[in-house]
Amino acid sequence: MQTDETLRQILGDYCEKLPDQLASLYDLYNTRKYSSIHPKDIARNLHVELHRMKGAAHCMGYRKFGRELSRMDTKISKSLRLHTRGIQETLDELEFRIARLDLMLSDITPDKSRLIMNNLVEDWNQQELLEEGRDEEWLDVLRDQRIVLADDDPFIQKILSTYLMDIGVKRVMAVSSGLEVINAASDFRPDIIITDWKMKPVSGLELLQCIRNGGTDLAEDTIVVFFTSSRDGRSRMEIECNGADKHLTKPVSPRVVKFALIDILKRRAGVAVEQDARSEVEATS
Fold first, then answer.
1. CB 60 within 8 A of CB 251
2. Which end of the chain is more exposed for a tag (fewer CB within 10 A), N or C?
3. Do residue 174 and residue 278 come from a single domain?
4. Please, are residues 169 and 139 in contact by the beta-carbon 8 Å criterion?
5. pTM for the full model?
6. What's the helix, strand, coil split of the chain in %, to 5?
7. Torsion sign across C-alpha atoms 203, 71, 41, 86
8. Do 269 and 130 fall into the same domain?
9. What is the DSSP letter of 199?
10. How many domains, the chain?
11. Which structural domain range is residue 91 located in?
């Protein structure tokens, strides 16, 4: 398998381009100093970018960096409920924290990713040998599925695409929002959608609701799996109540993705699924 080599290439590309992303984030923040854009609009834009960046950091296996971005994102998100003065005060506090992110770059290298340090890919290859022949029939079913990945971060798209193609899934499409999923529905006709939560102009939750309510060209029972950095129980309950098939928390190993999808296919076919070590906890321990 080439997953480990490809993963290192993706991580290397992420690490190389991260300083530019931080510079763009700081430029976005600095628009408050030389433009007439309302502070709330600046806060909204920062929230979108911080959310994307924290999801990518977690998915790439940089927990400490992801947590710092997450704290900043939470703070700016809460400020959106305040009056203008409260938003301005929050933006003032964020300036130092954004600048401080540069100090964390030395710890963000491919070898320091939890995906590498926890040997997720090596464990995947070893486990594949141990489980050879297990669920082979359902693996063939999975390989025949059309799968759309919806995430606004290109690095997350690359990692998930690599996992799926290494499993043997041939028909994989990556898009950046729920709207692009809807637009691609009639041509690509996905059987499975793996989606992030917060995207513009159509979020993952809005996409799920549209599908389940018959508001798209997709079948109302299309499999929808959420792949997010959120560990909030209330958020998970919300997507489950709206009909999501599964919630996976970034990061996950290839094995978790594989068996999560196989288990969904089994349940849809009325086949009992064993609850064993094949859980998302495996990848985040």
1. yes
2. C
3. yes
4. no
5. 0.85
6. 65, 10, 30
7. positive
8. yes
9. -
10. 2
11. 3-112
